[in-house]
Write a sequence for this structure.
């Protein structure tokens, strides 16, 4: 009897323990609560195979493989082999990462692993792949993994990913550049020098080598034709003593602009650092000065070099034309009121050695692929200007709202993106037409070629072949997305429209098969595939379907207007398990335009900015994200008006507890929160982070993040004040939070990272001191090792997210058992 009693007690004890374990599993992030998203989608050329990275909060080293013919099934899972992966045409995959590589036959799932790998990749045009080991051995294999060729002593490697490898190897005390295919190795250039740099030009026609001759200080620039092996290196102008050389390709290798630079690094540990009032290159304090530029134009056909005098203009750039260069002085009259210098642009005629000006105050320059035309954006008039190199004529393109021009390869048209459809400009007729299927939609061109010929001043070549592959992304006013393909004279939809957010899209080479990663606020990311000729989408992979809580999320889009009649939207998320008979607290999060993110999936996690709407609604809060726009009243007053109008639009929501609303913002949202806190009585508490508290001080600040003054950010940047402090001091004073800090009437939590160079941490300290001196309820959190966004996985991010939740619960749910908050209030009450 006693034994039965003991067994009975043990049985129930075991049930109780299991119950506790099961209950605990519901509250921790175990396997049942392992959240992930999907990204880096890749698709095979024929559209059958696909691969995607599985991204957890702190790691993304898992690669999932799929067969279009087997929907819903992961055919293989690779771990720590997702650094680089590519499909070959023979149903094979090559993947690499963490010093390993893997070849896999996808049809039979046969595989072979390789160790000690530095780099691996495809030669898709030959259906082969290569392996470059850490000991310098290079191996070329066919699609079955059989070794076709090996080479030892490889020091540098470039691949076109299609047919050829180009390698530098040490051989018999010499450096040799070779071209490698599966079948043979072709020597291209041999020298006794060492190669310190190896670069392939965008066209793939030339490899540029920087040679260091033993025992000599001068370095040599050598051009090697990748096909013929023709070498250009004995020209005396290419043998120089320099710190750096920038080589820009012109007309697919017909010519090259060479910029030999000598630089002086900034002096460290000097007694005094002198800043001059006429210095227009303050970035040199960080990066040093370019003491000299020596420019040369190399004509490949003639193997002739023309020196370019830099006496009149310090900077030359390619015009993608063998007869002309662009010339300008970027520092002339630059007062930092814009982020980048506005260029007074000149054309230099190479044969005539003459200059003529074409544009003033150009902020963006786009070149045609044939070098015949140049487009420049005039920042003052907000117009595009077209220059014809052959005729010398300039044309003003008189239409507002045009963005990101792209030249057509047929040399007749320029395509412009806009928020009201795609526009095509006929160069000869000087006329516009738009496409009916794109009107009323915000469009962006997702195909075509674009590369910068000058990184610092945004000068680029941008073109598209409208007769081959021309794809558009279009978003309508209801946040629905579609993809369109140009077909003869009009665009037709190949994907969409869908209310889901399309995170990524990939097509087969012939555009007949489309893959998308799609998500929504209540739908974790999943992979879909369809035939672009009209079949329905098929779910290939349902993603994190275990996140069942996501399917219960409720959202409303709230339409409203500010006091000036500007139409705006806000996203309202309901508490999980919402009961209309109850009242709930609400947290308002602000930045600028947020409504476009209404279909973005989010899972509960520690956020680097301390805000996660998914966590908050699971903890029983309404979360509201209203849009904010700025106007002539100034940044702060505009934000205040928009937020007040948004709150008014929620007047019919009886379940929101109007006495329990909090306001939260980070960075620009932190500034907006600071200002609204000084002018509003509609919030019970605030959390503000890494935002300016004194915009007059910030206006006259120097950023050690961008290494330039912050004037531009206020006049023509994010703050959109549109005038300088000296032109309208009242505008800056009236929108300055610190001037009204004594008017804050609800508790504030402030936080910042003390290594933040975006918005320096002492702006938060200043606002804290203003609140403290005004006897306001405030606590400030300073994280000594953190920057503008707190580091993932750090103790600081865990601490912040815990404290912000405790703050909201303390003031909006009356959960008062929080010592670090009560400590502030107890001291206040004791005085």
């Amino acid at each position: 009897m006693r034994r039965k009693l003991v067994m009975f007690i043990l049985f129930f004890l075991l049930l109780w323990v299991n119950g506790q374990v099961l209950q605990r599993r519901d509250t921790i992030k175990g396997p049942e609560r392992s959240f992930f998203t999907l990204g880096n989608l890749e698709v095979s050329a024929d559209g059958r195979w696909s691969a995607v990275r599985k991204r957890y909060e702190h790691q993304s080293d898992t690669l999932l493989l799929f067969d279009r013919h087997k929907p819903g099934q992961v055919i293989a899972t690779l771990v720590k082999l997702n650094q680089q992966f590519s499909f070959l045409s023979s149903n094979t995959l090559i993947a690499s990462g963490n010093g390993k590589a893997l070849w896999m036959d996808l049809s039979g799932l046969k595989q072979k692993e390789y160790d000690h790998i530095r780099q691996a990749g495809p030669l898709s045009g030959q259906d082969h792949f290569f392996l470059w080991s850490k000991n310098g051995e290079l191996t070329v294999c066919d699609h079955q993994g059989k070794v076709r060729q090996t080479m030892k002593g490889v020091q540098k490697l470039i691949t076109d990913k299609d047919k050829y490898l180009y390698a530098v190897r040490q051989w018999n005390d010499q450096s040799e550049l070779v071209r490698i295919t599966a079948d043979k190795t072709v020597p291209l250039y041999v020298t006794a020098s060492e190669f310190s740099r190896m670069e392939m030009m965008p066209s793939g026609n030339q490899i540029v080598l920087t040679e260091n001759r033993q025992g000599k200080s001068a370095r040599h620039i050598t051009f090697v034709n990748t096909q013929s092996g023709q070498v250009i290196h004995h020209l005396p102008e290419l043998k120089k003593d320099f710190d750096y050389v920038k080589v820009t390709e012109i007309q697919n290798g017909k010519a090259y602009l060479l910029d030999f630079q000598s630089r002086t690094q900034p002096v460290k540990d000097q007694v005094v650092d002198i800043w001059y009032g006429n210095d227009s290159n303050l970035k040199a304090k960080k990066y040093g000065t370019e003491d000299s530029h020596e420019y040369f134009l190399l004509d490949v056909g003639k193997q002739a070099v023309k020196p370019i005098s830099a006496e009149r203009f310090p900077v030359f750039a390619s015009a993608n034309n063998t007869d002309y260069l662009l010339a300008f002085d970027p520092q002339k009259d630059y007062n930092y009121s814009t982020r980048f210098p506005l260029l007074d642009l000149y054309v230099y005629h190479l044969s005539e050695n003459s200059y003529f000006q074409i544009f003033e105050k150009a902020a963006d320059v786009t070149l045609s692929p044939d070098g015949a035309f140049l487009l420049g954006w005039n920042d003052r008039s907000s117009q595009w200007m077209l220059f014809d190199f052959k005729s010398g004529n300039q044309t003003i393109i008189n239409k507002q709202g045009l963005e990101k021009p792209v030249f057509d390869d047929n040399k007749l048209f320029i395509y412009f993106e806009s928020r009201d459809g795609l526009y095509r400009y006929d160069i000869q007729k000087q006329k516009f037409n738009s496409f009916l299927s794109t009107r009323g939609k915000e469009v962006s061109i997702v195909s075509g070629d674009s590369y910068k010929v000058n990184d610092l001043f945004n000068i680029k070549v941008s073109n598209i072949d409208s007769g081959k592959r021309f794809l558009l992304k279009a978003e309508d006013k209801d946040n629905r997305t579609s993809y369109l393909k140009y077909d003869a004279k009009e665009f037709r939809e190949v994907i969409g429209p869908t209310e889901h957010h399309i995170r990524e899209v990939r097509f087969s080479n012939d555009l007949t098969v489309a893959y998308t990663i799609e998500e929504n606020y209540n739908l974790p990311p999943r992979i879909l595939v369809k035939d672009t000729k009209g079949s329905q989408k098929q779910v290939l992979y349902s993603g994190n379907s275990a996140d069942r809580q996501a399917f219960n999320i409720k959202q409303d889009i709230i339409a409203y207007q500010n006091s000036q009649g500007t139409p705006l939207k806000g996203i309202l998320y309901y508490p999980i398990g919402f009961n209309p008979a109850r009242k709930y607290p609400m947290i308002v999060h602000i930045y600028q335009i947020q409504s476009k993110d209404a279909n973005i999936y989010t899972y509960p996690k520690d956020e680097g900015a301390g805000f996660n709407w998914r966590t908050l609604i699971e903890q029983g809060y309404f979360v509201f994200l209203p849009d904010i726009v700025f106007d002539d009243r100034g940044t702060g007053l505009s934000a205040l008006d928009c937020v007040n109008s948004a709150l008014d639009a929620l007047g019919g929501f009886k379940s929101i507890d109007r006495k329990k609303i909090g306001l939260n913002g980070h960075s620009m949202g932190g500034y907006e929160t600071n200002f609204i806190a000084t002018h509003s009585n509609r919030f019970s508490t605030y959390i503000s982070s890494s935002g300016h508290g004194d915009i007059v001080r910030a206006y006259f600040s120097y950023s050690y993040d961008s290494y330039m003054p912050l004037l531009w950010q206020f006049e023509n940047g994010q703050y959109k004040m549109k005038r300088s402090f000296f032109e309208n001091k009242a505008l800056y004073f009236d929108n300055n939070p610190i001037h009204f800090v004594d008017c804050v009437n609800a508790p504030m939590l402030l936080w910042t990272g003390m290594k933040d160079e975006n918005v320096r941490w002492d702006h938060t300290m200043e606002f804290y001191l203003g609140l403290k001196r005004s006897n306001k309820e405030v606590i400030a959190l300073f994280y000594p090792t953190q920057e503008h966004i707190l580091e993932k996985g750090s103790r600081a991010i865990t601490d912040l997210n815990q404290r912000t939740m405790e703050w909201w619960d303390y003031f909006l749910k009356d959960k008062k058992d929080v010592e670090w908050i009560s400590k502030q209030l107890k001291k206040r009450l004791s005085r």
Observations:
- Residues 362-499 form a domain with the Neuraminidase fold (CATH 2.120.10.30).
